[in-house]
Amino acid sequence: AKWVYAFGDGKAEGSADQRDLLGGKGANLAEMCNLGLPVPPGFTVTTEVCTYYYANQRSYPPELTSQVEHALEEVGRLTGRRFGDPERSLLVSVRSGARASMPGMMDTVLNLGLNDRTVEALAAESGDPRFAWDSYRRFIQMYCNVVLHLDHEVFEEILADEKGRLGYELDTEFTAEEWQHIVGLYKKRIEEELGEPFPQDPHLQLWGAIGAVFASWMNARAITYRTLHDIPASWGTAVNVQAMVFGNMGEDSATGVAFTRNPSTGEKKLYGEFLVNAQGEDVVAGIRTPQNITEAARLDAGSDQPSLEKLMPDAFSAFVEIAGRLESHYRDMQDLEFTIERGKLWMLQTRSGKRTTKAALRIAVEMADEGLISREEAVCRIDPASLDQLLHPTIDPSAARDIIGMGLPASPGAATGEIVFSSEDAEEAKAAGRAVILVRVETSPEDIHGMHAAEGILTTRGGMTSHAAVVARGMGKPCVSGAGTLRVDYRNGTMISMGRIFRKGDIITIDGSSGQVLAGTVAMQQPALSGSFSTLMEWADKARRMTVRANAETPADARTARSFGAEGIGLCRTEHMFFDDERILAMREMILAESADGRRKALAKLLPMQRADFAEIFEIMAGLPVTIRLLDPPLHEFLPKTEEEIAEVANAMGVEVALLRERTEALHEFNPMLGHRGCRLAVSYPEIAEMQARAIFEAAAQAAEKTGAPIVPEIMVPLVGIANELAFVKERVEAVAEEVLSESGQKIDYLIGTMIELPRAALNAGEIANAADFFSFGTNDLTQTTFGISRDDAAGFLDTYRQKGIIEKDPFVTLDRDGVGQLVRMASEAGRRTRGDLKLGICGEHGGDPASITFCEEVGLDYVSCSPFRVPIARLAAAQAAC
Ligand code: ADP
Ligand code: MG
Ligand code: MG
């Protein structure tokens, strides 16, 4: 078997499309050789060797030694050297390289092959003993650190002592003799620490480094990184061994890194930094301040350090030419690493460069305009989830963070404010002009006003679809949920984090994009939408098939949704409309009334308020569909809780407090989410549905008259499991429609449909479709009911499930294809068999999740609906799904 792939001298055994085998770095080194670019020769030990290594008790395939020896000879031949030769020794770098670039893997070892003899030869050959001894001490430091796991502080101590002794500031001040002396101190110290001398045999050094790269694949840092980024352990890493070129050979040598376009703005300008007489990662290590590559960047930065353009014009123009070629060859912005040895340029790495979302948009749009890529490719190049960065304030990445807790990144963006523990305090502080973070164990619909008043929401319980998370996303407010290490004590008014006590009024910051909770204020970056953003979104809109609607229930939400390009409302929840102070009273009167008459009386108070809510939303969405869900939550949630509240309702209704208390107790439910809610309310109290239907139709008629645009309300019946439930409610709603429309003399088209959110509904969809104009998959509840997992309580154990590999992804975040997805598919097909024109959509949180949107496209849904701030993400994801 072939385990080693050589590259060098204008050709290579591998190429860029062999990433899997050669790793990203190895594949691109091969590709650059094939393009005839100046790359120091070398070879790649494949990822298959890594796989073999772990499958065979950390041993190598038997042929590996001879293949490596052979490849080394070839590199020696190309460089006129020999590995281990005392006179003209080949020196190499050993570099790890997985398929996807992976921090956490072993760091590169440079100058391998140096020892007490070869260093003397290098000094003689280069005529520069200082360079030779500097290279040797660097090698010893790196090798000890990454291969022998000796703490680098050991060396820093020695360096600091010597600097102190000689009165130096910088490493570069040491002379050859001083470096030589320091190497002696290093070696003595190593022997003390490790009990054996620093390895002198270059072959021993090489195999030590190769082994360390493979071993690092399973180190804790690498494993964590893979888990976070869904990289399978089976991929393995490759090892690249490459002839050294030296950027530290004097004033005509240098090393640097560059991007073909600006990675933070996307501007089409070569952008990079370099250091004269330096090696490897000196540029990023921050020991000396690097210089700008181009003269233009130097002037921009107002730096008085000469640019590469001025300092080494020949190497510079060679580099500019190569950078351009690589960008057109890869058709993407490249991140380049290079070294100049005595005026000659060498390329050491190229890869697609990491960039901010802002830069990604600009680069994609400009590359399409330049004809380098197609518009479709441009659309596919942007990670939809990354658009979040643009739509919310974020924490300045360079700001210091004092992290006091960690929860789920429930709603993106960052916010700073005083701690308050109740919605009342939130409103009060807001009214006084202060910014607050509402900190709760969990939230309920009663906290809506507090959530509105707060800049952000922090809960210590609850998952990604807990009340706090869903509502915060809908409002576009940052939220961290389920921060389990924080303890909130309402009674004492404290929040405790690892022994630190925070009280009401203390300032904290939450980062809903990462889940971090921080003490104090932190510098922020404000969102800004660029021209490239709208251009790319236009291209995305042309490419997609599904429409994108928003889940919105207030005029403000509806406006935000439209401004982000929503094409209607897929879910207008009506329950939050009932939690306002004056409405909740009427609502409680209604629930606690003894008779239908009593209920009607209370409902009559609610009718005009509901009508006004709907009319405004219809006007904002004129010409676009608006799906309104009839009352859904358990009645339980509306019950008065305190004695004071009970007394207030009793007074309003003119009944005895005792009687009302009794009635409240009777309505108590053990399992409200599976209790008296959804269409069950409409079945027991049709008056509620009738009132809501009346409000909807009157509002529609009113809005149609005012805007002149067609208003098509879609009335959605929640929690249907039995076809008869829907038929029953539909009949009532239709009767009201006829009444209202004949009163107003207007013709309003409307649809009546249902949420599919119970497994029984999905299983029985064919029959349910007889009475439905549309299905909207309520995948939050459908996930909850299919798994039998309460979404409000799942955060704690689902995380354990993920860590233990039982599930890969949180099913409340990404739709579970194998279970919930099957139900969605089955119900869609059965529904369409009954009614070919059945409209299909999704309104769960999954409607804003790119992976779930891909699934919706596959199933052939007509639209997805998500919170207003996720609309751009959904538009882009829907386009990518259709491409
Ligand atoms: P990383 O993946 O962390 O970027 P690399 O393997 O690219 O690690 O190595 C880091 C740096 O080491 C390179 O950018 C380059 O400056 C230097 N380097 C690596 N190999 C060589 C070499 N053969 N000759 C000179 N410098 C090298
Ligand atoms: Mg590195
Ligand atoms: Mg690199």
UniProtKB/TrEMBL annotation:
Named cofactor requirement(s): Mg(2+)
Gene3D superfamilies the record matches: 1.20.80.30, ATP-grasp fold, A domain, ATP-grasp fold, B domain, Phosphoenolpyruvate-binding domains, Phosphohistidine domain, Pyruvate Phosphate Dikinase, domain 2
Keyword Disulfide bond: no
GO terms for MF: ATP binding; kinase activity; metal ion binding; pyruvate, phosphate dikinase activity
Enzyme class at the top of the EC tree: transferase
Coiled coil (UniProt feature): none
Reactions mediated catalytically: pyruvate + phosphate + ATP = phosphoenolpyruvate + AMP + diphosphate + H(+)
Residues binding substrate, per UniProt: R573, R629, E757, G778, T779, N780, D781
Entry EC number(s): 2.7.9.1
Keyword check for S-adenosyl-L-methionine: no
Keywords: ATP-binding, Kinase, Magnesium, Metal-binding, Nucleotide-binding, Pyruvate, Transferase
Binding-site positions, Mg(2+): E757, D781
Family classification: Belongs to the PEP-utilizing enzyme family.
UniProt function note: Catalyzes the reversible phosphorylation of pyruvate and phosphate.
Record's protein name: Pyruvate, phosphate dikinase
Provenance organism: Nitratireductor basaltis
